Fold:
Amino acid sequence: MDNPVKTKSPDAVTSVSPPPDAVTSVDRIALLREGQTTRNPKAGDQKTGNQKTAENSQPNSDRKLDLTPSIYPNSSIAERSVSNNKAKPEPNNKCPPESELGQNGVVNTKANGDITVTHKGRGPADNYSRTYRDDPDSSQCKEKSFHIINPNRTSTWKYSDGRTTIEYPQTGETKTTFDRLAHSVVKVETWNPKTQERHDNFIDGTVANIFLAGPNPRAEIIESYGKTTIKTTKYPNDSLKVENYTNGQEIGGSFRQPTKDGGYSETGWGPTSHDNYSEKYDPHSGETTRTDKDVTKTLYPNGKQTIISKDQTVQINPDGSEHHFGKENFDKPAWDYNNAEVRSAQKEMFAAAAERMDSSALAAFEKDATDFKSRAPKSKIPPDEVARTYKNITALLNSQPDASGVGVKDEDRGLLAASLMHEAGHPEDIKQGVNNTCNVTVAYRESLTKNPAAVTGFITEIALKSAATAPDGSKVTVDQQSLIPGAEEINFPSDPGQRSFATQVANVAFVNLAVQARGESYTQQPFPTSYNGQTDTAERELDNPDPKKGHVIDTQPTITYNEISKLSAIFTGDDSPHVIGFNNMSPRATSVDTRDQLENQLKMLQNQGKLPVILEVDSNHFPIQAMGSEKKGFGAHVITVDKVSGDRVHINNQWNPSDNKWVTIDDLFDNMSGKRVDK
Structure:
């Protein structure tokens, strides 16, 4: 397909069939009520964690979350060593080395590309296993880990390039990951099988705790930002407590308690009168009311708001108009999307686009800009945010190439601007393509739908500097290779199901915003490339914030539900949970355990104007599964819900246009809860 924005005409990707993708490996907080069994346990078939089935083991397929961390006591963890006194084999281009095979080694190749050779002999030293992985950079077969198989083990030493992991599965129950290159501890996990407690400490200072037993089972995340600390605690009944600290002193917080009929009550406390409030949501009327010392605010399901104080009442309508009466009586007109600021910003943007686009691309660009302005009132986006969005894209179009070569190449900036404008006008068209990026694509779509100025400003900054500061002050960098449009992203307009260049840039930026906080990075080269002899999407998660110093730890982004929700919170400004899952105890996720809870939660969010929302679903089964028949096993995937009508919801699944559809709440809950997992 010829690209009307660029002068070159690359080959288009053919037969694009977006594969399901993994949301994450192990979430920072294990799912409290699901931490020890499968979603659909049967008699005689209860397992620790969730095992991937043969049908669900291909590299690019969705895989079920391993809900039980690897450090949990498990009868299958028999390969844990006492020492590391075996001589390492010499480097060999063959994987595994022939020397291993000459020692009666049994080879087992895993779906993730690891090659494990197991040896059995008479003495303890003769029973060991080594795991190898082909290094795509050096074309060398590198040893990834080494185990002594010994039933009397006390610890395990694993080494993977620059990292060493020490495990004590029975004695100290501690797992420490130490980065020798950075001379720092990346992560420390502690699991106590007697008290059923787990504690994780991450390189960014985040602490995650889970208490499975005792009188007060709960999950916690403690996050620090300079002098500020936020502690979020989630309880089995879905009560949520948030505590805010400054310099170690509690300054405020909130506690939300769900009601049996699908509503909730919430109380807040803090230093100001507005911090001390009570809030209630009535599921029958759809009204949300918050009262503090000074005012009472009520949000109605039609989008209207009232603010009542001692001597003044304000009515705010969905179109932005306001009616004030009481001590002062006056009106404010509805939002004007054709005001001078919007017209000026749009005119300047069109002029800049004309310098980079041919006539057909320019016509499409102008239509997308008009469509964006038309959707703004429906999404309650005020005119000044429309103008700021236009100005952000104008800055991208008018930019000059940096002398140092950072950012998106100058010849690709028109392509980025065109695809970004289209997705601002039509967020329903955002697709992940053939990439394993459902986890950040949903956060990007929700954020661009609700707060386009913040997102377009962030992407423009990435495009110009290869680095940006997010709205919450977080800083992120993206490597140059990841800012080159891939084989499907270079097309504009994108073919159905293909990822755009704007989504590519958003994906790599959002992933890095999450993983760089924990001492990692993420890149994506123009694919196809191969890893361990298999063609893949060239996605690499690395164990260092600087990808040039990092080593590959995964071939897809491993983003937790907490991180997905936090990404959405950063760009929307709404710190409430953005992810809904079945039996999900992640503090930044909302758990639903019944079909009615799912319906009540979705209708509440629609009444509060908070759709779209992100849902954890099973990509292997109806009504989510891709083309073809269902597959056994739970394929962890995330989508968004943007409308609710009666007993049906409209889902946006970022695979193909046909995957955006209406489904019943019954079918959706059956899918989320794993009822069809064995079909």
